[in-house]
Amino acid sequence: MGQIASPSQLRMSFLRWGLVTVPLIVLLGVASGQLSGSGYDNAWFAELQKPDFMPPGWTFGLAWTLLYALIGLALAIILGARGARGRGLALGLFGVQLVLNLAWSPLFFSAHQVTAAFVLILVLIVLVVATAIRFGMIRRGAGLLMVPYLGWLIFAAALNYEIMRLNPDAETLVPGVTGTQITL
Questions:
Q1: Fold of 7-171
Q2: What is the rounded distance in angstroms from the CA atom of residue 57 to the CA atom of residue 60?
Q3: What is the tens place of the pLDDT at every residue in 77-105?
């Protein structure tokens, strides 16, 4: 009864967890984006000035799908590491950062809160660093799987900052309404 799991048992545990975590996290990410009207089809977003380094719209769907799959795999590795020291804290950090991640699109695209979204993404970056470190302390591979996500978040923060800087009136912008001032 008190035997250590064999390598094949550990692989099967990872695969079982991965079959749940990867699709679940991808689905949650897609749902957050779709329900908040994220992307270039959003009339409010289309009106905003964008920085020169803004990638084409298709890049975001591809990048986020891959990133959600990677963090789903990282989560599967940690879920399979039963009995590991610090696992509960690592899972708690992961849960908090995931909730904040899923809150960003509604905050930015639905509520038009560009400044609050920027603050949120900065907090998210700190939590992802902490999560990656905790994951890495349990399983090095899980920590490394979080690195591309962290890199993209830093890039997204730069985009968010530049949109905030280029559009100081973004939070009050009404799509499709242009102002014309006529002086006599």
A1: Ferritin (1.20.1260)
A2: 6
A3: 999 998 899 999 999 999 999 999 999 99
